[in-house]
Amino acid sequence: MSANRYAIYLAPPRDSDLWRFGSRVLHRDAATGAALLDFAPPGWTPEAWSKATADPRRYGFHGTLKAPFRLRDGIGLDDVATRLETFARSVEPFDLGRLKLGVFAAGPERGFVALRPSNRVDALVELERRAVIELDDLRAPLSLAERARRQPDRLSERQRFYLDAYGYPYVLEEFRLHFTLTGAMREANALADTLALDFRRETPNPTFRVDAVVLFKQEGDGDFQIERRFPLG
Asked: What is the pLDDT of residue 107?
């Protein structure tokens, strides 16, 4: 089983306003690995904001299709690339529509701020379903420690089934695409309103066209970085 982890994500092109916004908010560009330490919302210092975004910063700006996994024995990076090339060619690009700022619950009186689609998009639902199921043979089974970190006792019966079947509880019917911008915090609702102002100012066109799936790689305990984009169609 590989020591590195990989993930299959959606991510905007690195020359887009959306990518620049997400990377600035997270204080890191996952395409280059560069630290971007100048952003902080009103009332926050850059240092305090770095702490507030520490968890999502490790993963880079992204929306999850297939959550981080280790490669199954006998599978190498070239095998993954070949599979993803074929997979991506079988999917036509589509528009996700306008993204908006929202808050996802993360326990009692806590939430995290994320960008999410304004409406359900059937092409996205189908893309996620296919990625989860058709590419699952690349993934090594979860170790006991990896499974325990997902706190299965706090999951629903269906989420526990998906955790054991696909290595991640929030797939298929549980899937809700989001681009995480902060860790869990009590101030999430007020912060979402503040970040929405920055989002409108820095991304005049907040629409996202899904035209590639993106392979991210984590070496050891390092941060995830973009390994390669695979154009759709």
From this structure: 78
Q: Quick one: tokens of 217? A: 């790689």
**Among the listed residues 121, 102, 21, 7, the one whose alpha carbon sits nearest the alpha carbon of residue 64:** 7
What percent of the chain clears pLDDT 90, i.e. is strictly above it? 95
- Cross-strand bridge partners of residue 229: 214
CA atoms of 212 and 93, how far apart (whole Å): 7
Nearest 10 degrees: Cα torsion 112, 118, 122, 123 = -80
Q: Tell me which DSSP letter residue 153 carries.
A: G
pLDDT tops 90 at residue 148: yes
- For residue 91, the domain's CATH number is 3.90.1140.10
Task: Report the interhelical angle of 77-89 vs 122-134 (nearest 10°).
Answer: 150
Beta strands at 225-231 and 5-10: parallel, antiparallel or unpaired = unpaired
Full-model pTM: 0.94
Q: Cα(80)–Cα(88) distance, rounded to whole angstroms? A: 12
Number of H helices, E strands in the chain: 8, 8
Structure-token pair, residue 28: 């890191």
Q: How many domains are contained in the chain?
A: 1
CA distance 71 to 77: 8
Please answer whether residues 167 and 142 qualify as being in contact, where contact means their C-beta atoms are separated by less than 8 angstroms: yes
| Segments in 75-167 forming alpha helices (H) | 77-89, 122-134, 144-149, 157-166
Domain hosting 90: range is 5-231
**Predicted local distance difference test score (pLDDT) of residue 106:** 85
Q: Distance (Å, rounded) from C-alpha 36 to C-alpha 25?
A: 8
- The residue to which tokens 């280059």 are assigned: 32
